[in-house]
Amino acid sequence: MTLKGLGLLLILLGLLIFTPKANAAFPDKPIKVVVYTGPGGLIDISARKFAGIASKYVDVNFVVENKPGAGGIVALKKVIQAPADGYNLYACTKSNIAKFVQVGGEGYLDALHWTAMLMADPECVITNRKLAIHEWPDIVENALAIPGDQTWVGPAAGGLDHVTALKIWDKYGIDAKWIPFKSGGKALAALLGEQGVAYVGNPRDALGNPDLFIAAVSAPERLEAFPEVPTFTELGMSGLENEFMWRGFALKQGTPHEVVEWYDDLFKKVTADEDWISFWSKGGLDVTYIAEPEFSKLVQEDAEVFEYYLKKSDILPGDAVGILAKMATGSQFIILSVILLLVWLSGSYGVYRSNYSDILGRFMIIGFFLVVSILFLVQSMNFPTSSAVGPAAVPRLWITMLIPLNILLMIKTFRKKDGVAESGPRVDIVLSFIGFLIVYLFVMQVFGYFLSTFAFIIVGLYYLGYRNWRNTIIIASSWILFSYVVFYKTLYVPLPLGMLFENLF
User: Fold this and answer.
1) Quick one: which of 287, 4, 278 has its CA closest to 121?
2) pTM for the full model?
């Protein structure tokens, strides 16, 4: 074969290898239904029921994957970090919107294509039948007679049930207390234990327990499954006839139009299925299918309502602090970080050019920690503040100590510049430390907070000259354990898990 013929053959082979293949018809592999709770919750049941009925109409396997954590954000990131090809379906509820608003994640709303709302579960007030005060008129009379003393129970502060309670209180002029519990089941147990007079949830929550009494339901008319339960309108209060928990599905924004159409056709078939309708109608749910863009509009309205009530109840900061909270996320935070770092570098250069160049090293160290403290303070502004000790409490406690301490050290440095000069500027330490931090932040995006922080502590102690490996491992492990128990599990701070582990699990 001549050289020319060999070249032509290589060109043809290259064309065959790099020519895009025709896209296979969707779907050609299993579809993951990503659920933000553990197994057994209503959204998990909804996802599994959907998967079972959908298999009647399409020849594809649906795999339900539970990714609990951070009020739905862990599951959300699993979806939005995957390709926008339709193979990751986010099972979501109205409660997720409350969490997105709490953590300043308005961008999360735009990251999703709100594909299908499949059911509306009306909100209601449930009481303890054994208590003397358990009917709605008596609850209102008691609350007005003892302002601020009546106690209601429910799931986490700032969630849908809490905001529904706030709306009800607004309408009736009630001043009551909300005691949040980790789950609805624990809140109901507290109600039965007479730790509160009312619980806000859904009618299904009262099924199977004769001591639970549904005092009022937020629906336009009485529910067929609960004909004895009065609506708020019947009880003389308008404006509370359309409060409900919706459940549905979302895809990553940018999913191809033909894939969205495929899902639209499937959702119509599932919601018209007799098995689907009979299964959910027992709990008084409306199973009318609502697609995008109407569903998207509803989500935006829900976000605005949540923001209003969360600010009113001081769970979210007000407008003045809200500016800082918005700066704590996205591009604004990056811009603020760059500005502060430029100010720090400019100040360092000013010190270098002045008569104080001998104290440059210490100035850079102190200034750097001051900048980092300010950035941490801004970052903590978007943490929920639903209780006296919330996710923002510990970092703000550290920051409150760090900022004055750094300012004091800077003042002392300039006052005693001659004594500092004897030891010489150690800019190398500062630059090395900055390098460690930059690497640490990049590694965290891949390997997550826990693994990268564990390694960072060990490397940092070694760099500082500490060579007791047993104590080093104990210190690093103790901090990781503390972070996991206090921040991640107790305060629900969404510490990054890293792209590697989010994709694997």
Assistant:
1) 287
2) 0.64
